[in-house]
């Protein structure tokens, strides 16, 4: 079905269910799916769409961007990078007297201090910042959730993995992806809890997921955030 509103047209599908509330989903192709109670009229559906029009358009844009992959970053003033779940602009400061390139987060901005300005220097400074922040954030999270576990991690390290957000080996050595510093704190907490649960359950069996769910009942929401946002977590 098609509906036009505010000079914009969307394609949508309706799925009638035994439910009392509505839900709106957007797939990777920008198609909108409405889950509705069985006795809902077409006019009610259209009113629902119009009342949520801005959010639907935002989700359509996000899903299409995700399908196309991350946009190439431009290392200039105002370019934004994720940190703790939100996009923040960068501000670049160039001074030949600077001894070591660094990044400081202040006033909702990633302040980048460089001895010599070039794109690669900015990229490497950001990566070092994320590595450092990830280690601090993960360490804090481990301390917060340690009360749920009888054993402690033997070591904690940060990696540049392209495949995993975290790992736990048989020696209770935990490793986390530096890109986690770009995620909200509750998502970082989930990955930490997930890997700490592996200290007692090396496989993803029922006992493992029961423990994860007991400690963090909403863990599926955190998984969904990573699934939907991982394409944007890049420098």
What does it look like?
The chain is an alpha/beta fold and 235 residues long. It is 37% helix and 26% strand. It contains 6 helices and 11 strands. The chain has helices at 42-51, 53-68, 119-145, 185-197, 206-215, 219-229, and strands spanning 2-5, 8-17, 23-26, 32-37, 80-83, 86-94, 102-106, 109-114, 155-159, 166-168, 173-177. It has a 4-stranded mixed beta sheet. A 4-stranded mixed beta sheet has the order 5-6-8-7. Helix 3 (119-145) crosses helix 4. The radius of gyration is 22 Å and the shape is flat. The model has no long low-confidence stretch (mean pLDDT 91).
* Tally of DSSP helical segments: 6
Radius of gyration: 22 Å
Q: H/E element string?
A: EEEEHHEEEEHEEEHHH
Structural classification: alpha/beta
| Poorly predicted runs of 5 or more residues | none
Question: How would you concisely characterize the structure shown here?
Answer:
This protein has 235 residues and is of the alpha/beta class. It is 37% helix and 26% strand.
């Amino acid at each position: 079905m098609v509906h036009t509103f505010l000079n914009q047209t969307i394609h949508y599908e309706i799925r009638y269910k035994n439910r009392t509330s509505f839900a709106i989903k957007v797939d990777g192709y920008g198609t909108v799916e409405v889950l509705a109670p069985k006795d809902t009229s077409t006019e009610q559906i259209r009113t629902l769409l119009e009342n949520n029009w801005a959010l639907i358009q935002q989700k359509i844009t996000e899903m299409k961007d995700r399908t196309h992959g991350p946009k190439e970053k431009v290392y200039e003033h105002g370019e934004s990078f994720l940190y703790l779940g939100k996009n923040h602009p960068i501000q670049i400061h160039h001074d030949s007297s600077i001894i070591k390139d660094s990044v400081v987060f202040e006033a909702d901005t990633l302040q980048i201090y460089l001895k010599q300005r070039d794109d690669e220097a900015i990229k490497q400074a950001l990566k070092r910042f994320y590595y450092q922040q990830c280690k601090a954030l993960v360490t804090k999270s481990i301390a917060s959730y340690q009360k749920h576990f009888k054993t402690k991690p033997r070591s904690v390290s940060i990696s540049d993995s392209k495949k995993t957000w975290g790992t736990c080996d048989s020696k209770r050595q935990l490793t986390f992806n530096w890109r986690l510093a770009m995620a909200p704190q509750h998502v970082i907490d989930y990955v930490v809890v997930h890997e700490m649960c592996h200290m007692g359950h090396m496989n993803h069996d029922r006992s493992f997921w029961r423990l994860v769910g007991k400690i963090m009942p909403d863990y599926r929401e955190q998984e969904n955030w990573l699934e939907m946002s991982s394409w944007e977590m890049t420098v």
